[in-house]
Write a structure and sequence with these properties.
Radius of gyration: 16 Å
Number of helices: 6
Distance between the termini: 12 Å
Order of helices and strands: EHHEEHEHHEH
Strand content: 15-25%
Strand order of the largest sheet: 1-4-5
Helix content: 40-55%
Largest sheet: 3 strands, parallel
Shape: elongated
Length: 144
């Protein structure tokens, strides 16, 4: 598994994050759209990243069910796994609040995990694509 910027989609952590006010506003907006029968309507999302998605999709991805909180089952992953993050996203994006400690601990405890933090990179690895490609290719060569 090569997991690039695997966001921890955990409702409680996002509600407690520095961006919680924006997150609460997005959850409220999505909930109101869904309750009014407009869950399939696109909405402008401001947290955790500016984008567009349906209200249904937002609640599915970021809602209280925590369906996509990969950290909750990370210890059961036994195949070689690369965890790659941009330094800026870990340091500056509230959606990644506390993630550096979590993935550092995971990579220390689990021999199948490799952690690579790309210096100066944001969540989208802007202007770092070649470096990311080379790092993933190198990891594949060594993991096999």
């Amino acid at each position: 598994i090569a997991a690039l910027s695997a966001t921890r989609l955990n409702f409680e952590r996002l509600m407690a994050s520095p961006g919680s006010a924006k997150f609460q506003a997005m959850i409220s907006k999505a909930t109101k759209l869904c309750e009014s029968g407009k869950g399939g309507d696109l909405m402008r999302v401001e947290f955790p990243f500016p984008t567009w998605m349906t209200a249904d999709a937002y609640l599915e991805k970021y809602g209280e069910a925590n369906r996509y909180d990969w950290i909750s089952f990370s210890d059961s992953i036994k195949v070689p796994t690369l965890l790659m993050f941009g330094e800026k996203e870990l340091d500056e994006n509230s959606a990644f609040d506390g993630m550096r400690d979590v993935v550092t601990d995971l990579a220390t405890r689990m021999p199948n995990y490799t952690l690579n933090i790309v210096d100066g990179a944001d969540h989208f690895y802007s202007f770092q694509y070649k470096l990311v490609r080379l790092a993933v290719e190198g990891w594949i060569d060594n993991a096999g």
